[in-house]
Every structure is written in C-alpha cells, then in structure tokens.
Amino acid sequence: MAKIIATKNSSKKEVIAKKAAALFRNKSFAATSMRELAENIGVEASSLYNHIGSKNELLQTICFKVANDFTIHLNEVEKNTNSSIIKLEELIRFHINMMLSHSDEVFVANHEWKQLSEPFLSNFMNQRKSYENRWVEIIKDGIRKKELKNLNPHITVLTILSAVRSVEFWQRHKKSIESNDLESNIIDHLLNGLIK
Asked: Under DSSP, is residue 189 helix (H, G, I), strand (E, B) or coil?
C-alpha cells in the first residue's frame, strides 16, 4: 500500500480532507465509509487514523476551513475599502473563485454541514449567520451612502449568495463557457442587472 504524501502546500491531513470532500460530494457524507476513503487514497484504513480521528473530524475540517477562508477574506475586504460596490464585487469574485478552485470542499460546506455533530453544528451555523449578517451590513451601508438601490438587504444577500452558489452547475457547461466570462457575467448581472 502507498503512503499519504503531503504536498508543498498541503499537510497529510489536508490531502486526506481534499479526497474526503470529493467522496462526500459524490456519495454524500453519510454514505461514505472510512474504508472507501482509504481505498481512494491508496492506503490501509488504519493508516488514516494516524492523521485523523474520525469521519466526523474530516467533515469539521472541511466545513470550517471553507467558512474560515470566507471570513478571513471578508475581514480583508472590509478593512481595505469603503466602497460598498467594490466590497460586493471583491466578495462575489472570491466566492466564484472558491467555487471554481475548491468546488468539492465548498459543495460539502454548502450541502453536508447539517451532518456536523454538536457543538460543531451550532458553531458552524453561528459563523455562517454572522458572515451573512456582515454582508447585510455592507448592503445597508451602500444604501445609506446612495451607492446602492434601496432594496431589502436580506433579500439582496440571499439573491447574491444563491446566484454564486449556482456556479456548481457550471461544471456541466465548462466547455462552452470560460471561467473568466462566467465571473465577469455573474458580477455584471448581480451588480448592474439585465435592463439597459
């Protein structure tokens, strides 16, 4: 059997989590076994336990890594600009790039988080709610500054995040739509609308 090999940018645990995310996406968290994960990586199941404690720990690692990446980026965006429009564009771009470059992990964080055990489930939900509320505050600030239309901030955030999460369906059309076109078009639609 092979060994789990760390890469220049990833620890062995991160390599395992990446493989797990792909399996969780394809089969679901509940339907994936540690034995399948070990076979997918090419190691004995017992070798996995040298690096991780359980399948639940893998789900926690994946979900919180994604949530933390989004939160860290939001912190940077809020710190670096006052314009609500630029903040929104930066945030949308980051979401699209995460969906394209870490699609399995983001999919798992978006769809399998309900399988987290407590207290991780509550912590994840609180982090997610806090993140979305900070988006709402950006929208409200843009309305106050007259940079944005006076639309319901909660609906606006829901619309933007739902639209960006739909990038996972883009995988079916990869050959006909370039990723740069996808990003530019989504940002244009979300920030400028369709009407001339």
From this structure: helix
CA angle 187, 157, 84 (to 5 degrees): 65
CATH annotation of 55-192: 1.10.357.10
Separation CA 7–CA 5 (nearest Å) = 6
Complete DSSP assignment for 131-143: HHHHHHHHHHHHH
Match domain 12-48 to its CATH number in 1.10.10, 3.50.30, 2.40.128, 3.40.50. Answer: 1.10.10
The residue among 172, 109, 171, 160 whose CA lies nearest residue 136 is 160
Any idea what DSSP says for residue 176?
T
Q: Which position has the token pair 């933390």?
A: 68
Q: Given a cut of 60, is residue 1 above it in pLDDT?
A: no
Classify residue 9 by burial, with Cβ atoms within 10 Å: 0-12, 13-18, 19+.
exposed
Q: What angle do CA 48, 53, 12 make, to 5 degrees?
A: 45
The CA-based diameter of the chain, rounded to the nearest angstrom, is 62
pTM of the predicted protein model: 0.89
pLDDT one-digit tens code per residue, 153-192: 999 999 999 999 988 877 666 666 777 888 898 999 899 8
| Average pLDDT of span 39-49 | 81
Q: What interhelical angle do 55-80 and 103-111 show, nearest 10?
A: 100
